Amino acid sequence: MLSCLVAEHPKQWDLSLPQAEFAFNSKLNRSTGYNPFMVVYTKVPLMPMDLIPITKPAHNSVSSIAEWVSKLHSDVTANLQATNAHYKALADKHRRLQTFLPGNLVMVHLNKHRLQQTPNAKLHPRKLGPSPSNKLLEITPTS
User: Fold this and answer.
1) Whole-angstrom distance, CA of residue 134 vs CA of residue 48
2) How far is CA 75 from the centre of its chain?
3) Contact (CB, 8 A) for 59 and 53
4) pLDDT per position in the chain (143 positions), as tens?
5) What GO molecular functions are on record for this protein (predicted)?
6) Do 16 and 5 touch, CB atoms closer than 8 A?
7) Maximum distance among all alpha carbons in the chain?
8) How far apart are CA 96 and CA 101, in angstroms?
9) How many CB atoms lie within 10 A of CB 80?
10) CA-CA-CA-CA torsion for 46, 51, 55, 58, nearest 10 degrees?
11) DSSP 3-state of 105
């Protein structure tokens, strides 16, 4: 999007950032089902066509606005959960359940906090093994 906005003046890309941010935040998000402005500020930003005077003003009570915001947030949460479930199903298609019995050889992955804190720790191996497992391990596709 930014490359389209700065096509004529590529060295002045920083001047187009506010316009790109506004365009991105005004666009409907596929995961939430709402645009980011609606989720954060509970209203859609004014566009040029929205500047036409409204014939009758909206009179909303505080409780109805609070209910509407609550419903909006619950809808966004439900949409995100559905999207995450869809992505999980797509990712799990290529995974399988792995079972390691005691005595099977496994590789042990070390995170950076378990590595020795020496000056050359980044050069040390990140995995130990293969070493025999001590107990029954069942690694599910989500692990």
Assistant:
1) 67
2) 17
3) no
4) 778 888 888 888 888 898 888 888 888 888 888 889 888 888 888 877 777 776 666 667 888 888 888 999 999 999 999 999 999 999 888 888 888 888 888 887 777 666 666 777 677 777 777 878 787 777 776 65
5) nucleic acid binding
6) yes
7) 78
8) 16
9) 14
10) 20
11) strand
Is the backbone of residue 96 left (phi > 0), alpha (psi -120 to 50) or beta?
A: beta
Q: What would the two tokens of residue 69 be?
A: 């915001």
Residues 6+ apart with CB under 8 A from 96: 141
Task: Please report which residue ranges of the chain form alpha helices under DSSP H.
Answer: 2-5, 17-26, 36-41, 62-92
Q: Say if CB 57 and CB 67 are below 8 A apart.
A: no
Model's pTM, two decimal places?
0.53
Query: What 3-state class would DSSP assign to 138?
Result: strand
Give the whole-angstrom CA distance, residue 62 versus residue 65: 5
